[in-house]
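So, can you check?
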Amino acid sequence: SKYCPSFGKFRKVDDISLLDKDSGFNVKASLCREKIGDFVSYKIFVDKKEAGFMDMNCTSLFPEGDYVLTQPNNVIPEITHLRSLLGEKYSGIGTALVNAAVKESRKRGNDGCLFLTAEKGYARTFSDYRSDENPIPFYYKLGFEAVNPQIDSFIKKCIAKSQYNMLPDSALLLLTPEAIAQKNKYFAKNYTFC
């Protein structure tokens, strides 16, 4: 079915599996996509309920001019919003959305390369909701790294020592094709992210 109960013209592009945290069983979910110019949005639905969403600007200029990228003119897709709305109940929403972003980047000739700004407080629900959650360990688990080498080193030390309260409140992160091949190399122990 192509049904996605949402605004815009979202179309189902894939069936995905999420883990129901209560039962321990996998549940079927729908990944839906909408494209408006250079902007692409994805939503995940479980039983016709929106479980999470992600927005991407596929023609963003990478903001670090001194960082060498293989992409022409430093134009790579940027994840501008990523939210897990039903993360209390289902596991895997954020990962499925980032995987969709990697596929979108590859489709556009960017080898899966992505960037985003990870900001504390915007980890779980709508963008106007503030919390104490920091999404940096989640993104590191998927292979993202801070662009600034000193910040990257500091973040890796914090994650290795499970010192999540020491993490910066915000960091510019980059996912490179090389990191995609080695994802999960910095798995954050004792950290839950919805």
Summary: Residues 87 and 194 are 4 Å apart (CA to CA). Strands lie at 11-20, 26-36, 39-46, 49-57, 78-84, 90-91, 114-119, 145-146, 170-175. The mean pLDDT is 81.
